[in-house]
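Deliverable D5.2: sample structural annotation.
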Amino acid sequence: MGNLEVPIQMVIVFVVALVVALLAVPLAAAVGLAVGGPLVDQPRPGELQRRPIGRTGGYGIIIAFFAALLVSLPIADRSHDLSEYGRLMGLAFGAALLIPFAAWDDARRLPPLPQLLAQLGCAALPVIFGVRIERIANFDIAQVAPWLIAPLSIIWIVGMINALNWLDTMDGLAGGVSLIGALVLFAASLLQYGPDGRFAAQQNSIALLGLALAGACLGFLAYNFPPARIFMGTSGSMFLGYALGVISIIGGAKIATAALVLGLPILDTALVILQRLLGRRSPFQGGDGTHLVHRLRAAGLSVRQIVSLVYTLTALFGILSLALVKEQKIIAFLFVGAIIGGILLALRRRAAASASNQESGEGHGSRA
């Protein structure tokens, strides 16, 4: 089966991931509903949700991804780099450690410190198996200092886990952004060039990983696009961040590409942490409406409008990440930050104007 043409391999992997997700996601959600308790999201006053929704759809994403990965093993040619099998084992072992901790968080809400320690352990496993940031593609100064390789790799993966976990606050958001990110990493693998400037055909097997994740996300979105019928829960959001973090470095570091296409959730997470620290609050204590999407919702945008805006920006940044090279990606990342800053400033001015109008109205009322 290893003689199959590469396009056929891609179709098989994507279709397997998609079909398995379409079958496994509702099954996983049904199990969550049957178990009940914290695995079910109950309707709350003032929200659009009208019925209990299972928060276990993320397990369907995980099953779909690894089903497609297993299918790819006999059909993809990895003879050029047998160490790739070791890195895939690291990916699997890290996920195997992540899943029970994510399930524990779904069921009991782990405190921040145990959750962080668990994430560090999950990120360390693929690094032990060779998933390391040893060089950063597209930059002239590409080599990473040996003493920095392991810490940088672990920090990157943990950062991605939290960026996607914190993004999962609205129907269709984390799944859609992950879908776009996975497709961009798939394309980046196909367009990867070696140190000699020649096209690296051996990246085809790595490209299948992004395609498997994209198929799993698309299958999940069939149930999660607003209004959602199934939620992914911590298991899904943490796995998506973990998978994107590992895939972005497993076949030659595509850190700049991943950072740009996922720049919005990464920078939003950083800004939220900064705002909470400046407000003398725990950066892990939510419910304060500091996320960009929450501010957009408070400004009157519908969930679908917000999700569509985030999808559009993520896709735009993804295209830029593939088109730009070297220092251009740093400039583009700063551009992403400027866009987020501009949106936040506009929302703050709008909120201030609204508050001023309300005070003015109350003043007129008191004189009447």
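Annotation notes: The beta strands are 40-41, 53-54. Confidence is low (pLDDT under 50) at residues 195-199, 363-368.
The annotation will be released with the project's public dataset once the embargo ends.
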